[in-house]
Protein backbone atom coordinates (compact mmCIF):
# COMPACT_ATOMS: atom_id res chain seq x y z
CA UNK A 1 0.00 0.00 0.00
CA UNK A 2 1.46 3.34 -1.06
CA UNK A 3 1.06 6.52 0.96
CA UNK A 4 0.79 8.44 -2.32
CA UNK A 5 -1.52 9.34 -5.21
CA UNK A 6 -0.85 8.25 -8.81
CA UNK A 7 -0.52 11.05 -11.37
CA UNK A 8 -1.61 10.84 -15.03
CA UNK A 9 1.00 9.48 -17.43
CA UNK A 10 2.52 11.97 -19.89
CA UNK A 11 5.16 11.54 -22.56
CA UNK A 12 8.59 12.46 -21.15
CA UNK A 13 9.59 15.92 -22.32
CA UNK A 14 6.06 16.97 -23.30
CA UNK A 15 4.55 20.26 -22.11
CA UNK A 16 2.23 18.32 -19.78
CA UNK A 17 5.16 16.33 -18.41
CA UNK A 18 7.11 19.50 -17.59
CA UNK A 19 4.06 21.22 -16.12
CA UNK A 20 3.41 18.23 -13.85
CA UNK A 21 6.90 18.65 -12.39
CA UNK A 22 7.23 22.43 -12.34
CA UNK A 23 5.77 23.07 -8.88
CA UNK A 24 7.08 19.86 -7.35
CA UNK A 25 10.40 18.39 -6.21
CA UNK A 26 11.19 14.94 -7.56
CA UNK A 27 13.91 12.43 -6.86
CA UNK A 28 16.28 13.84 -9.47
CA UNK A 29 15.70 17.34 -8.04
CA UNK A 30 16.46 16.74 -4.38
CA UNK A 31 20.20 16.24 -4.83
CA UNK A 32 20.63 19.62 -6.60
CA UNK A 33 18.41 21.26 -3.98
CA UNK A 34 20.68 19.83 -1.26
CA UNK A 35 23.86 20.77 -3.15
CA UNK A 36 24.78 17.10 -3.65
CA UNK A 37 24.47 16.69 -7.41
CA UNK A 38 27.64 16.52 -9.55
CA UNK A 39 25.52 17.30 -12.63
CA UNK A 40 23.11 20.10 -11.73
CA UNK A 41 23.32 23.04 -9.34
CA UNK A 42 20.50 24.52 -7.29
CA UNK A 43 20.93 27.72 -9.34
CA UNK A 44 20.31 25.90 -12.63
CA UNK A 45 17.43 23.84 -11.25
CA UNK A 46 15.81 27.03 -9.92
CA UNK A 47 15.81 28.60 -13.39
CA UNK A 48 14.41 25.41 -14.92
CA UNK A 49 11.60 25.20 -12.37
CA UNK A 50 10.87 28.91 -12.80
CA UNK A 51 10.48 28.38 -16.55
CA UNK A 52 13.45 30.62 -17.38
CA UNK A 53 15.58 27.86 -18.85
CA UNK A 54 14.87 24.59 -20.59
CA UNK A 55 15.92 21.24 -19.18
CA UNK A 56 19.46 19.92 -19.54
CA UNK A 57 20.59 18.98 -23.04
CA UNK A 58 20.55 15.27 -23.77
CA UNK A 59 23.95 13.59 -23.56
CA UNK A 60 25.22 10.18 -24.74
CA UNK A 61 25.35 9.05 -21.10
CA UNK A 62 21.71 10.02 -20.60
CA UNK A 63 20.65 8.34 -23.84
CA UNK A 64 22.40 5.07 -23.04
CA UNK A 65 21.10 5.18 -19.51
CA UNK A 66 17.57 5.16 -20.92
CA UNK A 67 18.37 2.47 -23.49
CA UNK A 68 19.90 0.18 -20.88
CA UNK A 69 17.24 0.70 -18.22
CA UNK A 70 15.05 -2.18 -19.35
CA UNK A 71 17.88 -4.76 -19.78
CA UNK A 72 19.21 -3.92 -16.30
CA UNK A 73 15.71 -4.14 -14.83
CA UNK A 74 15.27 -7.52 -16.52
CA UNK A 75 18.56 -8.68 -15.01
CA UNK A 76 17.38 -7.73 -11.51
CA UNK A 77 14.06 -9.50 -12.11
CA UNK A 78 15.91 -12.63 -13.27
CA UNK A 79 18.02 -12.57 -10.12
CA UNK A 80 14.86 -12.27 -7.98
CA UNK A 81 12.20 -14.45 -9.66
CA UNK A 82 10.16 -14.52 -6.45
CA UNK A 83 9.38 -10.80 -6.89
CA UNK A 84 6.92 -9.14 -9.27
CA UNK A 85 8.61 -6.17 -10.97
CA UNK A 86 6.18 -3.56 -12.28
CA UNK A 87 6.34 -0.23 -14.10
CA UNK A 88 5.99 2.55 -11.56
CA UNK A 89 4.73 5.82 -13.06
CA UNK A 90 4.54 9.14 -11.20
CA UNK A 91 3.21 9.68 -7.68
CA UNK A 92 2.86 12.49 -5.16
CA UNK A 93 2.70 12.07 -1.40
CA UNK A 94 -0.85 11.80 -0.06
CA UNK A 95 -0.47 14.99 2.02
CA UNK A 96 2.55 16.73 0.47
CA UNK A 97 1.42 17.32 -3.10
CA UNK A 98 4.77 18.93 -3.91
CA UNK A 99 6.75 15.76 -3.11
CA UNK A 100 7.06 13.86 -6.38
CA UNK A 101 8.25 10.28 -6.84
CA UNK A 102 8.96 8.68 -10.21
CA UNK A 103 10.89 5.48 -9.43
CA UNK A 104 11.95 3.29 -12.33
CA UNK A 105 10.09 0.24 -11.05
CA UNK A 106 8.04 -1.00 -8.11
CA UNK A 107 8.64 -4.45 -6.67
CA UNK A 108 5.98 -6.64 -5.03
CA UNK A 109 7.65 -9.16 -2.71
CA UNK A 110 6.19 -12.61 -1.86
CA UNK A 111 4.86 -11.32 1.47
CA UNK A 112 3.00 -8.47 -0.27
CA UNK A 113 5.45 -5.68 0.62
CA UNK A 114 5.99 -2.97 -2.00
CA UNK A 115 9.57 -1.80 -2.58
CA UNK A 116 11.36 0.50 -5.01
CA UNK A 117 13.73 -0.59 -7.77
CA UNK A 118 15.97 2.10 -9.25
CA UNK A 119 18.13 1.44 -12.32
CA UNK A 120 21.47 3.14 -12.97
CA UNK A 121 24.39 2.95 -15.39
CA UNK A 122 27.86 4.25 -14.67
CA UNK A 123 31.17 4.46 -16.49
CA UNK A 124 33.15 4.05 -13.28
CA UNK A 125 32.64 2.02 -10.12
CA UNK A 126 34.75 4.31 -7.91
CA UNK A 127 31.77 5.63 -5.90
CA UNK A 128 29.97 2.30 -5.78
CA UNK A 129 30.62 -0.14 -2.97
CA UNK A 130 30.60 -3.91 -2.94
CA UNK A 131 27.52 -5.49 -4.49
CA UNK A 132 25.03 -6.32 -1.75
CA UNK A 133 25.96 -3.34 0.41
CA UNK A 134 24.22 0.06 0.71
CA UNK A 135 27.21 2.08 -0.53
CA UNK A 136 26.03 4.12 -3.52
CA UNK A 137 26.85 7.68 -4.66
CA UNK A 138 25.41 10.24 -2.27
CA UNK A 139 23.23 11.96 -4.90
CA UNK A 140 21.61 8.65 -5.82
CA UNK A 141 21.10 7.83 -2.15
CA UNK A 142 19.24 11.13 -1.71
CA UNK A 143 17.06 10.27 -4.70
CA UNK A 144 16.18 6.82 -3.37
CA UNK A 145 15.42 8.07 0.14
CA UNK A 146 13.21 10.77 -1.38
CA UNK A 147 11.19 8.11 -3.20
CA UNK A 148 10.81 6.00 -0.08
CA UNK A 149 9.71 9.02 1.94
CA UNK A 150 7.24 10.17 -0.72
CA UNK A 151 5.71 6.73 -1.21
CA UNK A 152 5.67 5.70 2.44
CA UNK A 153 7.89 2.67 1.76
CA UNK A 154 10.77 1.24 3.74
CA UNK A 155 13.17 -0.41 1.30
CA UNK A 156 14.62 0.20 -2.14
CA UNK A 157 16.91 -1.72 -4.44
CA UNK A 158 19.42 -0.15 -6.80
CA UNK A 159 20.71 -2.13 -9.78
CA UNK A 160 23.65 -0.61 -11.65
CA UNK A 161 25.60 -1.61 -14.75
CA UNK A 162 29.14 -0.27 -14.52
CA UNK A 163 31.35 -0.02 -17.57
CA UNK A 164 28.93 -2.04 -19.66
CA UNK A 165 29.60 -5.38 -17.95
CA UNK A 166 29.92 -5.01 -14.17
CA UNK A 167 26.44 -5.62 -12.72
CA UNK A 168 25.86 -4.83 -9.04
CA UNK A 169 22.93 -4.64 -6.63
CA UNK A 170 22.40 -2.54 -3.51
CA UNK A 171 19.69 -2.25 -0.88
CA UNK A 172 18.74 1.03 0.82
CA UNK A 173 16.47 0.96 3.86
CA UNK A 174 14.53 3.80 5.45
CA UNK A 175 13.82 3.30 9.14
CA UNK A 176 11.46 6.06 10.23
CA UNK A 177 12.07 5.23 13.89
CA UNK A 178 15.79 5.87 13.49
CA UNK A 179 16.53 9.42 14.75
CA UNK A 180 19.29 10.00 12.21
CA UNK A 181 17.23 8.93 9.21
CA UNK A 182 14.19 10.80 10.53
CA UNK A 183 16.27 13.96 10.75
CA UNK A 184 17.63 13.32 7.26
CA UNK A 185 14.19 13.07 5.67
CA UNK A 186 12.98 16.12 7.59
CA UNK A 187 15.98 18.08 6.34
CA UNK A 188 15.25 17.12 2.74
CA UNK A 189 11.58 18.10 3.08
CA UNK A 190 12.43 21.48 4.57
CA UNK A 191 15.04 22.16 1.87
CA UNK A 192 12.52 21.25 -0.84
CA UNK A 193 9.81 23.51 0.63
CA UNK A 194 12.25 26.40 0.96
CA UNK A 195 13.39 25.89 -2.62
CA UNK A 196 9.82 25.96 -3.95
CA UNK A 197 9.08 29.06 -1.88
CA UNK A 198 12.16 30.78 -3.32
CA UNK A 199 10.74 30.21 -6.82
CA UNK A 200 7.40 31.74 -5.83
CA UNK A 201 9.14 34.73 -4.25
CA UNK A 202 11.62 35.17 -7.10
CA UNK A 203 14.66 34.78 -4.84
CA UNK A 204 17.12 32.73 -6.86
CA UNK A 205 19.98 30.81 -5.21
CA UNK A 206 23.45 32.31 -5.10
CA UNK A 207 25.73 31.85 -8.08
CA UNK A 208 28.27 29.12 -7.44
CA UNK A 209 31.13 27.55 -9.36
CA UNK A 210 29.26 24.55 -10.78
CA UNK A 211 29.55 23.97 -14.52
CA UNK A 212 25.77 23.93 -14.87
CA UNK A 213 25.53 27.33 -13.15
CA UNK A 214 27.96 28.84 -15.65
CA UNK A 215 25.98 27.35 -18.54
CA UNK A 216 22.75 28.77 -17.11
CA UNK A 217 24.18 32.26 -16.72
CA UNK A 218 25.46 32.12 -20.29
CA UNK A 219 21.99 31.25 -21.59
CA UNK A 220 20.02 33.81 -19.59
CA UNK A 221 20.67 37.12 -21.43
CA UNK A 222 18.08 37.77 -24.14
CA UNK A 223 20.11 39.19 -27.02
CA UNK A 224 23.34 41.19 -26.82
CA UNK A 225 23.81 44.95 -26.48
CA UNK A 226 27.14 46.44 -27.55
CA UNK A 227 27.65 48.37 -24.30
CA UNK A 228 29.97 48.30 -21.30
CA UNK A 229 28.67 47.55 -17.81
CA UNK A 230 30.58 48.84 -14.79
CA UNK A 231 31.28 46.26 -12.07
CA UNK A 232 32.88 46.75 -8.66
CA UNK A 233 36.63 46.72 -8.18
CA UNK A 234 36.15 43.88 -5.71
CA UNK A 235 34.47 41.66 -8.32
CA UNK A 236 37.03 42.61 -10.97
CA UNK A 237 39.95 41.83 -8.64
CA UNK A 238 38.36 38.53 -7.61
CA UNK A 239 37.97 37.53 -11.27
CA UNK A 240 41.55 38.41 -12.19
CA UNK A 241 42.88 36.62 -9.10
CA UNK A 242 40.80 33.53 -9.84
CA UNK A 243 42.00 33.38 -13.46
CA UNK A 244 45.63 33.72 -12.33
CA UNK A 245 45.10 30.92 -9.79
CA UNK A 246 43.45 28.79 -12.47
CA UNK A 247 46.43 29.24 -14.77
CA UNK A 248 48.88 28.29 -12.03
CA UNK A 249 46.74 25.31 -10.99
CA UNK A 250 46.47 24.06 -14.58
CA UNK A 251 50.24 24.18 -14.95
CA UNK A 252 50.68 22.34 -11.66
CA UNK A 253 48.13 19.68 -12.65
CA UNK A 254 49.89 19.11 -15.97
CA UNK A 255 53.23 18.75 -14.17
CA UNK A 256 51.90 16.24 -11.62
CA UNK A 257 50.14 14.28 -14.39
CA UNK A 258 53.42 13.98 -16.26
CA UNK A 259 55.23 12.87 -13.12
CA UNK A 260 52.56 10.24 -12.34
CA UNK A 261 52.63 8.92 -15.91
CA UNK A 262 56.40 8.73 -15.70
CA UNK A 263 56.12 6.79 -12.43
CA UNK A 264 53.40 4.47 -13.78
CA UNK A 265 55.51 3.31 -16.70
CA UNK A 266 53.63 0.49 -18.44
CA UNK A 267 50.98 0.15 -15.73
CA UNK A 268 47.42 1.53 -15.93
CA UNK A 269 46.82 2.66 -12.35
CA UNK A 270 48.58 4.58 -9.60
CA UNK A 271 47.88 3.99 -5.90
CA UNK A 272 49.10 5.19 -2.51
CA UNK A 273 51.28 2.94 -0.35
CA UNK A 274 48.15 1.81 1.53
CA UNK A 275 46.50 0.70 -1.72
CA UNK A 276 44.08 3.58 -2.20
CA UNK A 277 43.80 4.35 -5.90
CA UNK A 278 44.94 7.81 -7.02
CA UNK A 279 44.57 7.79 -10.80
CA UNK A 280 43.86 5.58 -13.81
CA UNK A 281 45.10 6.14 -17.32
CA UNK A 282 43.19 5.32 -20.49
CA UNK A 283 45.13 3.94 -23.45
CA UNK A 284 44.44 4.60 -27.13
CA UNK A 285 44.47 1.02 -28.44
CA UNK A 286 45.31 2.10 -31.97
CA UNK A 287 48.46 4.00 -30.99
CA UNK A 288 49.31 2.63 -27.56
CA UNK A 289 49.56 6.18 -26.24
CA UNK A 290 47.93 7.58 -23.13
CA UNK A 291 44.58 9.26 -23.90
CA UNK A 292 43.87 10.56 -20.41
CA UNK A 293 44.78 10.29 -16.74
CA UNK A 294 41.67 10.33 -14.56
CA UNK A 295 41.70 10.86 -10.80
CA UNK A 296 40.01 8.29 -8.59
CA UNK A 297 36.83 9.62 -7.01
CA UNK A 298 36.97 10.01 -3.25
UniProtKB/TrEMBL annotation:
One of its GO terms (molecular function) is endonuclease activity. Residues 289-298 have a biased composition (Polar residues). Residues 271-288 have a biased composition (Basic and acidic residues). Keywords: Endonuclease, Hydrolase, Nuclease. Signal peptide: none annotated. The keyword Heme does not apply. Residues 1-21, 269-298 are annotated as: Disordered. InterPro entries: Lambda-type_endonuclease, NF-kappa-B_Signaling_Reg, PDDEXK-like_dom_sf, Restrct_endonuc-II-like, YqaJ_viral_recombinase. Residues 16-148 form the YqaJ viral recombinase domain. It comes from the Bacteria. SUPFAM superfamilies: Restriction endonuclease-like. This is Putative phage-type endonuclease. It comes from Haloactinospora alba. The lineage of its organism: Bacteria, Bacillati, Actinomycetota, Actinomycetes, Streptosporangiales.
Amino acid sequence: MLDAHRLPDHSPGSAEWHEQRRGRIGGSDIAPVMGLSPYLSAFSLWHQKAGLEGGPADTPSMEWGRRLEEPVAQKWAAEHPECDVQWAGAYVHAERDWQLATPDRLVLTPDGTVEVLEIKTSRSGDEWGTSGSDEIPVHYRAQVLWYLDALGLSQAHVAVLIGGSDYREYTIALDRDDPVQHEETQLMRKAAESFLYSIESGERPSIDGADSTVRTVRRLPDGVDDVTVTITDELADEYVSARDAESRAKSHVNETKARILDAIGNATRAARPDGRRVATRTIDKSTGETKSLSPARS
